[in-house]
Amino acid sequence: MYDMATRRRALALVAQGRSLNSVSTETGISRSALRAWQTRIEPLPRLTRAATCSGPADPAAYAYLLGLYLGDGCISPHPRGGHHLRIACADAWPGLIEQCRTAMLAVRPDAPVYLLQRTGCVAVTSYGRHWICLFPQHGPGKKHERTIRLEPWQQALVEAHPWEFVRGLIHSDGCRVTNWTTRVVGGTPRRYEYPRYFFTNKSADITSLLTATLDRLGVAWRQANRQNISIARKESVAHMDLHIGPKY
Q: What does residue 203 show for φ and ψ, rounded to 5 degrees?
């Protein structure tokens, strides 16, 4: 976001007959911004009157969206103010794409949501002024290379809607699979199949948020390796099936 003095100085350079390219190189202002200022120099209302963030409109949808964001989400600034929230959802799970879109709309009904097709995935995207407030975990670099902590108000929402939060995490970085093993019964090898859930994330902080929530829900889990959480006990899988289920 640029103040009026900066805008007028940049446009003065353009008025001297210089190209948008050269002015952009000198000032660091994008050509698209310069082009937009040529048609409208007065500041837009959203640049001059910051609205107070009212929090998520739907707390349960927010808990789910928070899980998705911690797994596959990012926030990026827009040149004219505000921010884009993007959640990457694999093409293989059209139901997940729709659930993500629905959650975004529920959390901020005033922020439009659109789908951007990428190679092998869809970026469910929404532009608004308050995404940066709703997801204070945003920051430069990869999530697993920096500290991830929930704000007290976020923790309160997760504790009020724990299954929604777990569902978001599993839908982003988890899966439900069917494992099998063989046992010899009466001298004859028999194949047994059993379902389990996996969660994979490089961030120890994000993994700890999942396991702490699972502990509160009474779901047994184990650390399969440094990056993987496994849920395999029959009663725990049954609880997960009731509230989470496989992605689709």
A: -85, 120
